Amino acid sequence: MKNKINFEQTIQLNEQDLLKIIDRQKLPKHIAIIMDGNGRWALKRGLPRSVGHLAGAESLKGIVEICYELKIEVLTVYGFSTENWKRPQQEINYLMNLIIEYLNKEIGELCKKGVRVNSIGTLQELPQSVQDVIANSVERSRDNSGLVLNLALNYGGRLEITNAVRAIAEAVEVGCLKASQVDIQTITDHLYTAGLPDPDLLIRTAGEFRISNFLLWQLAYSEIWFTNVLWPDFRRQHLLSALVDYQQRERRFGGLQ
Ligand code: IPE
Ligand code: IPE
Ligand code: MG
């Protein structure tokens, strides 16, 4: 891409034009998304928050589609954080049922497209029915070699790192590992994301400029892209705009150009 295009220009472009600009050789391997703004989307329409969550699940379908079409390796989506238990029980119940419905409805199509479902988070604390449907989706799609759809459910970065530290400490305690052998790779290997590349691009919708306990370790060198678009309004062309922007960034990883 020779001439830089700014975001204001990309939002004027339709999907076909954006697809022409994107360099297929320079796509991120791993895209992570904080899907935020479902509640505000509903509130703006005078609807209950649950309707926003339902519309958000529809948005996810379109984004998964474009990701496998572009042959992105991993898409990690933040569906429920370890802090979201603070919400009213009714909303939590709705979200749990939505996860079940989404997976039950989509798993057939996901498998057809070669998507492999994976999850990160403390799944044991989710209702058994949610755990079962996740396990079933993971099992049914385990041999697929296309996009990895990584669902962050009851996920929190601090808890993930805490659990990793505990497991490493236990290994040291029983003599399997020396404290002096613990390095960056040891910690990386004990996270839920072990084996997956770090996100190259993090997208957060709904105009919030924070990480909200998402992938604290893994986002060390991710490019971050914020948009005011609320998640239920987030479409394929928004993702493509983010990719155009991403491809114009200079990733230095602390070095020099
Ligand atoms: C994101 O939308 C979905 C979850 C956190 C589960 P929100 O529900 O946070 O929507 P806002 O931020 O209240 O608009
Ligand atoms: C982050 O959004 C969690 C998910 C999108 C699942 P929140 O809406 O929970 O984040 P805060 O509370 O605004 O930081
Ligand atoms: Mg929110």
UniProtKB/TrEMBL annotation:
It comes from the Bacteria. One of its GO terms (molecular function) is manganese ion binding. Catalyzes the condensation of isopentenyl diphosphate (IPP) with allylic pyrophosphates generating different type of terpenoids. Gene3D superfamilies: Decaprenyl diphosphate synthase-like (3.40.1180.10). Substrate binds at residues 37-41, 49, 53, 81-83, 85, 87, 204, 210-212. The active site is at residues 36, 84. The keyword Chloroplast does not apply. It holds the Pfam family Prenyltransf. Coiled coil: none annotated. It comes from Desulfoscipio geothermicus DSM 3669. Belongs to the UPP synthase family. GO terms for biological process: polyprenol biosynthetic process. This is Isoprenyl transferase. Homodimer. Binds 2 magnesium ions per subunit. Keywords: Magnesium, Metal-binding, Transferase.
